[in-house]
Amino acid sequence: MKVCLLNDSFPPVIDGVANVVLNYANILTEKGEDVLVGTPGYPGGEYDGYPYQVVDYKSYNINDFVSGYRAGNPYDAAAISKMAAFKPEIIHTHCPVASTIMARILKNDNDVPLIFTYHTKFDVEIARAVKARFLQAEGAKLLVDNISACDEVWTVSHGAGKNLQDLGYQGDYHVVSNGVDFDKGRVEESFVEEVASKYDIPDNVPVFLFVGRLMKYKGLPLILSALNILSDHGKDFRMIFVGGGSDAEELKKMAADYELNVDVKNDEGEIVSFSTSDKPGKLIFNGPEHDRKVLRAWNTLAWLFLFPSTYDTNGIVVREAAACGLASVLIKDSCAAEGVTDGRNGYIIEETPEAMAALIEKVGFNKEVVRQAGEHAMNDLYISWQDAVYEAYDRYMVLIDMKKSGKLPASKKVTSDYLIKFTASLASSTAKVFSIPRSLKSGMMENMTEVLEEIQDKGSMLTGHIKEKTGLIKESIKSKGQSLLGINDGPEE
Questions:
Q1: CA 20 to 30 Å from 205, out of 52, 86, 282, 349?
Q2: Whole domain around residue 395: which residue ranges?
Q3: Is pLDDT at 325 greater than 70 in this prediction?
Q4: CB 103 within 8 A of CB 145
Q5: DSSP character at residue 48
Protein backbone atom coordinates (compact mmCIF):
# COMPACT_ATOMS: atom_id res chain seq x y z
CA MET A 1 0.00 0.00 0.00
CA LYS A 2 1.27 3.50 -0.84
CA VAL A 3 0.50 5.77 2.13
CA CYS A 4 1.05 9.54 2.25
CA LEU A 5 1.23 11.01 5.77
CA LEU A 6 1.14 14.78 6.28
CA ASN A 7 1.67 16.90 9.40
CA ASP A 8 2.79 20.42 10.25
CA SER A 9 5.44 19.15 12.69
CA PHE A 10 8.14 16.52 12.23
CA PRO A 11 11.72 16.09 13.47
CA PRO A 12 13.76 18.01 14.40
CA VAL A 13 10.58 19.24 16.11
CA ILE A 14 9.24 16.55 18.44
CA ASP A 15 5.74 16.92 19.88
CA GLY A 16 2.83 14.58 20.46
CA VAL A 17 1.50 14.63 16.89
CA ALA A 18 4.96 14.40 15.33
CA ASN A 19 5.43 11.29 17.47
CA VAL A 20 2.17 9.89 16.09
CA VAL A 21 3.32 10.38 12.48
CA LEU A 22 6.73 8.85 13.26
CA ASN A 23 5.09 5.73 14.69
CA TYR A 24 2.67 5.42 11.77
CA ALA A 25 5.49 5.80 9.24
CA ASN A 26 7.88 3.42 11.02
CA ILE A 27 5.36 0.66 11.70
CA LEU A 28 3.79 0.80 8.23
CA THR A 29 7.28 0.66 6.68
CA GLU A 30 8.22 -2.31 8.87
CA LYS A 31 5.00 -3.97 7.71
CA GLY A 32 6.19 -3.64 4.13
CA GLU A 33 4.07 -0.70 3.00
CA ASP A 34 5.42 2.21 0.93
CA VAL A 35 5.30 5.45 2.94
CA LEU A 36 5.87 9.13 2.12
CA VAL A 37 5.82 11.87 4.77
CA GLY A 38 5.20 15.53 3.90
CA THR A 39 6.29 18.26 6.34
CA PRO A 40 7.16 21.96 6.35
CA GLY A 41 10.90 22.45 6.19
CA TYR A 42 12.62 23.10 9.54
CA PRO A 43 16.19 24.38 10.03
CA GLY A 44 18.43 21.41 10.74
CA GLY A 45 15.99 18.92 9.25
CA GLU A 46 17.91 15.99 7.72
CA TYR A 47 15.70 13.37 6.10
CA ASP A 48 17.99 11.22 3.96
CA GLY A 49 18.43 8.61 6.70
CA TYR A 50 14.77 7.71 7.08
CA PRO A 51 13.57 4.32 5.77
CA TYR A 52 10.82 6.12 3.87
CA GLN A 53 10.64 9.21 1.69
CA VAL A 54 10.28 12.59 3.42
CA VAL A 55 9.32 15.64 1.34
CA ASP A 56 9.88 18.97 3.10
CA TYR A 57 8.45 22.12 1.60
CA LYS A 58 8.87 25.88 1.92
CA SER A 59 7.95 27.28 5.34
CA TYR A 60 7.90 30.50 7.34
CA ASN A 61 8.92 31.44 10.87
CA ILE A 62 5.87 32.02 13.11
CA ASN A 63 7.57 32.30 16.51
CA ASP A 64 5.53 35.43 17.25
CA PHE A 65 2.46 33.19 17.37
CA VAL A 66 3.60 29.63 18.09
CA SER A 67 7.09 29.24 19.50
CA GLY A 68 9.26 26.59 17.85
CA TYR A 69 6.99 25.94 14.87
CA ARG A 70 6.91 27.01 11.23
CA ALA A 71 4.01 27.57 8.86
CA GLY A 72 4.30 25.53 5.70
CA ASN A 73 3.36 26.86 2.27
CA PRO A 74 0.74 24.32 1.13
CA TYR A 75 0.88 25.66 -2.45
CA ASP A 76 4.54 24.74 -2.99
CA ALA A 77 4.22 23.38 -6.54
CA ALA A 78 7.56 21.55 -6.54
CA ALA A 79 6.71 19.64 -3.33
CA ILE A 80 3.18 18.86 -4.51
CA SER A 81 4.60 17.47 -7.76
CA LYS A 82 6.93 15.14 -5.82
CA MET A 83 4.10 13.88 -3.67
CA ALA A 84 1.76 13.45 -6.62
CA ALA A 85 4.43 11.43 -8.45
CA PHE A 86 4.44 9.04 -5.47
CA LYS A 87 0.84 8.14 -6.49
CA PRO A 88 -0.55 7.46 -2.99
CA GLU A 89 -3.47 5.09 -2.53
CA ILE A 90 -4.46 6.74 0.75
CA ILE A 91 -3.70 10.20 2.18
CA HIS A 92 -3.74 10.74 5.95
CA THR A 93 -3.31 14.26 7.32
CA HIS A 94 -2.82 15.08 11.00
CA CYS A 95 -3.10 18.89 11.07
CA PRO A 96 -6.06 20.89 9.73
CA VAL A 97 -4.00 23.78 8.42
CA ALA A 98 -1.26 23.63 5.75
CA SER A 99 -1.06 19.83 5.80
CA THR A 100 -4.75 19.38 5.02
CA ILE A 101 -4.71 22.02 2.27
CA MET A 102 -1.82 20.15 0.66
CA ALA A 103 -3.63 16.84 1.22
CA ARG A 104 -6.70 18.17 -0.57
CA ILE A 105 -4.56 19.24 -3.52
CA LEU A 106 -3.06 15.73 -3.69
CA LYS A 107 -6.51 14.15 -3.42
CA ASN A 108 -7.74 16.28 -6.32
CA ASP A 109 -4.81 15.11 -8.41
CA ASN A 110 -4.87 11.41 -7.42
CA ASP A 111 -8.58 10.88 -6.57
CA VAL A 112 -7.89 8.67 -3.53
CA PRO A 113 -9.42 8.60 -0.03
CA LEU A 114 -8.37 11.40 2.32
CA ILE A 115 -8.43 10.93 6.12
CA PHE A 116 -7.98 13.65 8.71
CA THR A 117 -7.20 12.96 12.39
CA TYR A 118 -8.14 15.59 14.98
CA HIS A 119 -5.53 15.54 17.76
CA THR A 120 -5.62 18.98 19.35
CA LYS A 121 -8.25 21.33 20.77
CA PHE A 122 -7.84 24.02 18.16
CA ASP A 123 -10.22 26.47 19.81
CA VAL A 124 -7.57 26.76 22.55
CA GLU A 125 -4.73 27.01 20.03
CA ILE A 126 -6.53 29.68 17.99
CA ALA A 127 -7.29 31.72 21.11
CA ARG A 128 -3.64 31.56 22.15
CA ALA A 129 -2.38 32.67 18.73
CA VAL A 130 -5.02 35.24 17.74
CA LYS A 131 -6.54 37.56 20.35
CA ALA A 132 -9.28 39.25 18.31
CA ARG A 133 -12.52 37.31 18.78
CA PHE A 134 -13.84 37.85 15.26
CA LEU A 135 -10.58 36.49 13.86
CA GLN A 136 -10.85 33.49 16.20
CA ALA A 137 -14.29 32.77 14.74
CA GLU A 138 -13.03 33.12 11.17
CA GLY A 139 -10.04 30.91 12.00
CA ALA A 140 -12.32 28.20 13.37
CA LYS A 141 -14.51 28.41 10.27
CA LEU A 142 -11.51 28.00 7.97
CA LEU A 143 -10.35 24.94 9.93
CA VAL A 144 -13.80 23.34 9.92
CA ASP A 145 -14.20 23.92 6.16
CA ASN A 146 -10.82 22.31 5.58
CA ILE A 147 -11.67 19.32 7.77
CA SER A 148 -15.14 18.92 6.25
CA ALA A 149 -13.61 18.53 2.78
CA CYS A 150 -11.92 15.25 3.85
CA ASP A 151 -13.51 11.88 3.12
CA GLU A 152 -13.32 10.63 6.69
CA VAL A 153 -12.55 12.30 10.02
CA TRP A 154 -10.92 10.49 12.93
CA THR A 155 -10.53 11.72 16.49
CA VAL A 156 -8.31 10.30 19.23
CA SER A 157 -11.13 10.31 21.79
CA HIS A 158 -14.86 10.99 22.10
CA GLY A 159 -14.00 14.22 23.94
CA ALA A 160 -11.92 15.36 20.99
CA GLY A 161 -14.89 14.65 18.71
CA LYS A 162 -17.15 16.73 20.95
CA ASN A 163 -14.63 19.59 20.83
CA LEU A 164 -14.54 19.38 17.04
CA GLN A 165 -18.33 19.59 16.90
CA ASP A 166 -18.22 22.61 19.23
CA LEU A 167 -16.01 24.30 16.62
CA GLY A 168 -18.82 23.87 14.09
CA TYR A 169 -18.03 20.53 12.44
CA GLN A 170 -21.28 18.76 11.52
CA GLY A 171 -20.09 15.48 10.00
CA ASP A 172 -19.44 12.04 11.43
CA TYR A 173 -16.19 10.97 13.05
CA HIS A 174 -14.49 7.71 14.03
CA VAL A 175 -12.52 7.31 17.28
CA VAL A 176 -9.12 5.73 16.52
CA SER A 177 -6.86 5.70 19.57
CA ASN A 178 -3.17 6.46 19.59
CA GLY A 179 -0.78 3.88 20.98
CA VAL A 180 2.20 3.78 23.30
CA ASP A 181 5.78 2.99 22.32
CA PHE A 182 6.66 1.75 25.84
CA ASP A 183 7.03 -1.96 26.37
CA LYS A 184 4.48 -3.33 28.79
CA GLY A 185 5.98 -3.81 32.26
CA ARG A 186 8.20 -2.05 34.78
CA VAL A 187 11.89 -1.30 34.32
CA GLU A 188 14.38 -3.33 36.37
CA GLU A 189 14.89 -1.97 39.88
CA SER A 190 18.64 -1.44 39.47
CA PHE A 191 18.12 0.96 36.56
CA VAL A 192 15.37 2.84 38.44
CA GLU A 193 17.78 3.33 41.35
CA GLU A 194 20.46 4.58 38.96
CA VAL A 195 18.11 7.17 37.41
CA ALA A 196 16.83 8.38 40.78
CA SER A 197 20.22 8.40 42.52
CA LYS A 198 21.02 12.02 41.56
CA TYR A 199 18.12 13.24 43.73
CA ASP A 200 17.24 12.95 47.42
CA ILE A 201 14.39 10.43 47.22
CA PRO A 202 14.17 8.41 50.47
CA ASP A 203 12.78 4.90 50.48
CA ASN A 204 9.06 4.60 51.26
CA VAL A 205 8.41 8.30 50.64
CA PRO A 206 5.59 8.66 48.08
CA VAL A 207 6.72 9.83 44.64
CA PHE A 208 4.31 11.64 42.32
CA LEU A 209 5.02 12.31 38.64
CA PHE A 210 4.07 14.60 35.78
CA VAL A 211 5.50 14.18 32.26
CA GLY A 212 4.84 16.70 29.51
CA ARG A 213 5.18 20.34 28.55
CA LEU A 214 5.36 22.66 31.55
CA MET A 215 2.41 24.82 30.55
CA LYS A 216 -0.14 26.19 32.98
CA TYR A 217 -3.06 25.07 30.82
CA LYS A 218 -2.03 21.48 31.55
CA GLY A 219 -3.36 21.98 35.10
CA LEU A 220 0.07 22.36 36.73
CA PRO A 221 -0.94 25.22 39.06
CA LEU A 222 -3.60 22.86 40.42
CA ILE A 223 -0.89 20.29 41.20
CA LEU A 224 1.23 22.86 43.04
CA SER A 225 -1.76 24.09 45.05
CA ALA A 226 -2.66 20.51 46.01
CA LEU A 227 0.91 19.76 47.07
CA ASN A 228 0.94 22.92 49.16
CA ILE A 229 -2.14 21.63 50.99
CA LEU A 230 -0.41 18.30 51.62
CA SER A 231 2.70 20.08 52.86
CA ASP A 232 0.60 22.18 55.25
CA HIS A 233 -0.81 18.89 56.55
CA GLY A 234 2.72 17.75 57.40
CA LYS A 235 2.97 15.17 54.60
CA ASP A 236 6.35 14.21 53.13
CA PHE A 237 6.59 13.34 49.42
CA ARG A 238 8.55 13.94 46.23
CA MET A 239 6.96 15.45 43.12
CA ILE A 240 8.89 15.05 39.87
CA PHE A 241 8.18 17.23 36.82
CA VAL A 242 9.74 15.81 33.63
CA GLY A 243 9.57 18.21 30.70
CA GLY A 244 10.23 21.77 29.62
CA GLY A 245 8.02 24.63 28.55
CA SER A 246 7.56 28.38 28.51
CA ASP A 247 5.77 28.40 31.88
CA ALA A 248 8.54 26.51 33.71
CA GLU A 249 10.05 29.54 35.46
CA GLU A 250 6.65 30.84 36.53
CA LEU A 251 5.80 27.44 38.00
CA LYS A 252 9.08 27.33 39.93
CA LYS A 253 8.31 30.79 41.32
CA MET A 254 4.84 29.61 42.31
CA ALA A 255 6.42 26.71 44.17
CA ALA A 256 8.77 29.15 45.94
CA ASP A 257 5.82 31.34 46.92
CA TYR A 258 4.25 28.26 48.52
CA GLU A 259 7.55 27.79 50.42
CA LEU A 260 8.03 24.33 48.93
CA ASN A 261 11.60 23.07 48.64
CA VAL A 262 12.77 22.65 45.04
CA ASP A 263 15.52 20.79 43.14
CA VAL A 264 16.23 21.88 39.56
CA LYS A 265 18.47 20.22 36.98
CA ASN A 266 20.21 23.03 35.08
CA ASP A 267 21.31 23.08 31.43
CA GLU A 268 24.64 21.47 32.37
CA GLY A 269 22.84 18.55 34.03
CA GLU A 270 23.81 19.66 37.54
CA ILE A 271 21.29 19.55 40.38
CA VAL A 272 20.73 22.97 41.93
CA SER A 273 18.93 22.82 45.28
CA PHE A 274 17.34 25.70 47.10
CA SER A 275 15.10 25.70 50.15
CA THR A 276 12.67 28.36 51.22
CA SER A 277 11.60 26.78 54.51
CA ASP A 278 11.86 23.72 56.71
CA LYS A 279 8.54 22.37 55.40
CA PRO A 280 8.56 18.72 54.37
CA GLY A 281 8.08 17.92 50.73
CA LYS A 282 10.32 18.47 47.75
CA LEU A 283 9.60 19.34 44.10
CA ILE A 284 12.02 18.13 41.42
CA PHE A 285 12.15 19.88 38.03
CA ASN A 286 14.11 17.35 36.00
CA GLY A 287 13.78 19.12 32.62
CA PRO A 288 13.05 17.35 29.30
CA GLU A 289 13.97 13.69 28.96
CA HIS A 290 14.23 12.08 25.51
CA ASP A 291 15.60 8.68 26.60
CA ARG A 292 12.54 6.45 26.57
CA LYS A 293 14.02 3.95 29.03
CA VAL A 294 14.73 6.74 31.51
CA LEU A 295 11.11 7.89 31.15
CA ARG A 296 9.99 4.33 31.83
CA ALA A 297 12.18 4.36 34.94
CA TRP A 298 10.48 7.51 36.28
CA ASN A 299 7.07 5.91 35.64
CA THR A 300 8.23 2.76 37.43
CA LEU A 301 9.49 4.73 40.44
CA ALA A 302 6.36 6.87 40.89
CA TRP A 303 3.41 5.95 43.08
CA LEU A 304 0.85 8.10 41.23
CA PHE A 305 0.82 10.00 37.93
CA LEU A 306 -0.81 13.43 38.33
CA PHE A 307 -2.45 14.64 35.12
CA PRO A 308 -5.15 17.27 35.77
CA SER A 309 -5.26 18.43 32.14
CA THR A 310 -8.58 19.18 30.49
CA TYR A 311 -6.75 20.37 27.36
CA ASP A 312 -5.25 17.12 26.08
CA THR A 313 -7.45 15.12 23.74
CA ASN A 314 -5.90 11.72 24.38
CA GLY A 315 -3.25 11.86 27.10
CA ILE A 316 -0.67 9.46 25.70
CA VAL A 317 1.38 9.97 28.88
CA VAL A 318 -1.48 8.41 30.87
CA ARG A 319 -1.21 5.26 28.71
CA GLU A 320 2.60 5.35 29.02
CA ALA A 321 2.21 5.43 32.80
CA ALA A 322 -0.25 2.54 32.59
CA ALA A 323 2.28 0.54 30.56
CA CYS A 324 4.60 0.75 33.58
CA GLY A 325 1.92 -0.19 36.10
CA LEU A 326 1.30 3.40 37.22
CA ALA A 327 -2.23 4.69 37.85
CA SER A 328 -3.18 8.31 37.12
CA VAL A 329 -5.17 11.01 38.89
CA LEU A 330 -7.43 12.62 36.26
CA ILE A 331 -10.13 15.26 35.98
CA LYS A 332 -13.75 14.18 35.68
CA ASP A 333 -15.08 14.31 32.09
CA SER A 334 -11.63 15.06 30.63
CA CYS A 335 -10.52 13.27 27.46
CA ALA A 336 -7.63 11.66 29.34
CA ALA A 337 -10.13 10.07 31.76
CA GLU A 338 -11.98 8.17 28.99
CA GLY A 339 -11.88 4.45 29.68
CA VAL A 340 -10.66 4.93 33.27
CA THR A 341 -12.74 3.43 36.09
CA ASP A 342 -12.38 5.40 39.30
CA GLY A 343 -10.74 3.36 42.01
CA ARG A 344 -9.91 0.41 39.75
CA ASN A 345 -7.39 1.52 37.12
CA GLY A 346 -7.08 5.20 38.03
CA TYR A 347 -8.61 7.98 40.06
CA ILE A 348 -11.05 10.64 38.86
CA ILE A 349 -11.53 13.91 40.75
CA GLU A 350 -13.22 17.28 40.42
CA GLU A 351 -11.02 20.03 38.99
CA THR A 352 -9.92 21.58 42.30
CA PRO A 353 -6.68 21.49 44.34
CA GLU A 354 -8.69 20.41 47.37
CA ALA A 355 -10.05 17.36 45.51
CA MET A 356 -6.57 16.33 44.36
CA ALA A 357 -5.07 16.82 47.83
CA ALA A 358 -7.87 14.80 49.44
CA LEU A 359 -7.48 11.96 46.95
CA ILE A 360 -3.72 11.79 47.39
CA GLU A 361 -4.07 11.91 51.16
CA LYS A 362 -6.60 9.08 51.00
CA VAL A 363 -4.73 6.63 48.72
CA GLY A 364 -1.44 8.18 47.62
CA PHE A 365 0.49 7.25 50.74
CA ASN A 366 -0.55 3.57 50.58
CA LYS A 367 1.87 1.95 48.15
CA GLU A 368 0.04 -1.38 48.02
CA VAL A 369 -3.29 0.26 47.09
CA VAL A 370 -1.89 2.45 44.31
CA ARG A 371 0.24 -0.38 42.90
CA GLN A 372 -2.87 -2.57 42.62
CA ALA A 373 -4.60 0.20 40.67
CA GLY A 374 -1.47 0.45 38.52
CA GLU A 375 -1.63 -3.25 37.69
CA HIS A 376 -5.22 -2.84 36.56
CA ALA A 377 -4.22 0.19 34.47
CA MET A 378 -1.52 -1.89 32.77
CA ASN A 379 -4.00 -4.61 31.89
CA ASP A 380 -7.01 -2.39 31.04
CA LEU A 381 -5.62 0.74 29.36
CA TYR A 382 -2.42 -0.26 27.56
CA ILE A 383 -2.41 -0.28 23.76
CA SER A 384 0.76 -0.64 21.73
CA TRP A 385 1.53 1.55 18.73
CA GLN A 386 1.62 -1.55 16.57
CA ASP A 387 -1.96 -2.44 17.54
CA ALA A 388 -3.08 1.16 16.97
CA VAL A 389 -1.46 1.45 13.54
CA TYR A 390 -2.70 -1.98 12.45
CA GLU A 391 -6.23 -0.85 13.35
CA ALA A 392 -5.71 2.24 11.19
CA TYR A 393 -4.30 0.09 8.37
CA ASP A 394 -7.43 -2.09 8.39
CA ARG A 395 -9.54 1.04 8.03
CA TYR A 396 -7.29 2.23 5.18
CA MET A 397 -8.12 -1.00 3.35
CA VAL A 398 -11.87 -0.51 3.88
CA LEU A 399 -11.75 3.05 2.51
CA ILE A 400 -9.66 2.03 -0.52
CA ASP A 401 -12.12 -0.75 -1.33
CA MET A 402 -15.07 1.63 -0.90
CA LYS A 403 -13.42 4.10 -3.27
CA LYS A 404 -12.74 1.46 -5.92
CA SER A 405 -16.31 0.15 -5.72
CA GLY A 406 -17.84 3.62 -5.85
CA LYS A 407 -19.31 3.30 -2.34
CA LEU A 408 -17.24 6.05 -0.71
CA PRO A 409 -19.57 9.06 -0.15
CA ALA A 410 -18.53 12.28 -1.83
CA SER A 411 -16.76 14.70 0.48
CA LYS A 412 -18.49 17.94 1.40
CA LYS A 413 -18.08 20.85 -1.01
CA VAL A 414 -16.46 23.91 0.60
CA THR A 415 -15.69 27.41 -0.62
CA SER A 416 -11.96 26.83 -1.14
CA ASP A 417 -12.47 23.94 -3.58
CA TYR A 418 -11.87 26.18 -6.61
CA LEU A 419 -8.42 27.19 -5.37
CA ILE A 420 -7.55 23.58 -4.53
CA LYS A 421 -8.51 22.43 -8.03
CA PHE A 422 -6.56 25.26 -9.66
CA THR A 423 -3.44 24.51 -7.62
CA ALA A 424 -3.70 20.77 -8.27
CA SER A 425 -3.96 21.43 -12.00
CA LEU A 426 -0.82 23.59 -11.98
CA ALA A 427 1.10 21.07 -9.88
CA SER A 428 0.08 18.26 -12.23
CA SER A 429 1.29 20.28 -15.21
CA THR A 430 4.60 20.92 -13.48
CA ALA A 431 5.12 17.20 -12.93
CA LYS A 432 4.79 16.61 -16.70
CA VAL A 433 7.63 18.97 -17.64
CA PHE A 434 10.51 16.62 -18.39
CA SER A 435 12.30 17.72 -21.54
CA ILE A 436 13.45 21.21 -20.54
CA PRO A 437 16.83 21.88 -18.85
CA ARG A 438 16.85 21.36 -15.09
CA SER A 439 17.84 24.98 -14.38
CA LEU A 440 14.93 26.31 -16.44
CA LYS A 441 12.52 23.83 -14.89
CA SER A 442 13.67 24.89 -11.40
CA GLY A 443 13.13 28.54 -12.26
CA MET A 444 9.65 27.80 -13.58
CA MET A 445 8.77 26.01 -10.35
CA GLU A 446 10.05 28.90 -8.25
CA ASN A 447 8.08 31.41 -10.29
CA MET A 448 4.96 29.24 -10.11
CA THR A 449 5.31 29.03 -6.33
CA GLU A 450 5.55 32.83 -6.13
CA VAL A 451 2.40 33.19 -8.26
CA LEU A 452 0.52 30.71 -6.09
CA GLU A 453 1.61 32.53 -2.95
CA GLU A 454 0.28 35.75 -4.48
CA ILE A 455 -3.06 34.01 -5.19
CA GLN A 456 -3.12 32.78 -1.61
CA ASP A 457 -2.37 36.29 -0.37
CA LYS A 458 -5.16 37.85 -2.45
CA GLY A 459 -7.73 35.31 -1.32
CA SER A 460 -6.78 35.33 2.36
CA MET A 461 -9.15 36.43 5.08
CA LEU A 462 -6.28 38.42 6.56
CA THR A 463 -5.68 40.88 3.72
CA GLY A 464 -4.02 44.24 4.17
CA HIS A 465 -7.20 46.30 4.43
CA ILE A 466 -8.31 44.33 7.51
CA LYS A 467 -4.92 44.97 9.05
CA GLU A 468 -5.14 48.72 8.37
CA LYS A 469 -8.73 49.15 9.54
CA THR A 470 -8.62 47.07 12.73
CA GLY A 471 -5.08 47.60 13.96
CA LEU A 472 -5.41 44.20 15.66
CA ILE A 473 -2.98 42.21 13.56
CA LYS A 474 0.68 42.39 14.49
CA GLU A 475 3.15 44.11 12.17
CA SER A 476 5.06 40.83 11.81
CA ILE A 477 2.30 39.47 9.55
CA LYS A 478 3.67 40.45 6.16
CA SER A 479 1.05 40.31 3.44
CA LYS A 480 0.65 36.55 3.56
CA GLY A 481 -2.24 34.53 4.88
CA GLN A 482 0.32 32.39 6.69
CA SER A 483 -0.42 33.94 10.10
CA LEU A 484 -3.72 32.10 10.43
CA LEU A 485 -2.75 29.09 8.36
CA GLY A 486 0.31 28.61 10.56
CA ILE A 487 -1.53 27.71 13.75
CA ASN A 488 0.02 24.32 14.48
CA ASP A 489 -0.87 21.29 16.63
CA GLY A 490 0.33 21.76 20.03
CA PRO A 491 2.08 18.67 21.38
CA GLU A 492 -0.14 15.95 23.00
CA GLU A 493 2.13 16.03 25.97
A1: 349
A2: 2-179+387-485
A3: yes
A4: no
A5: T
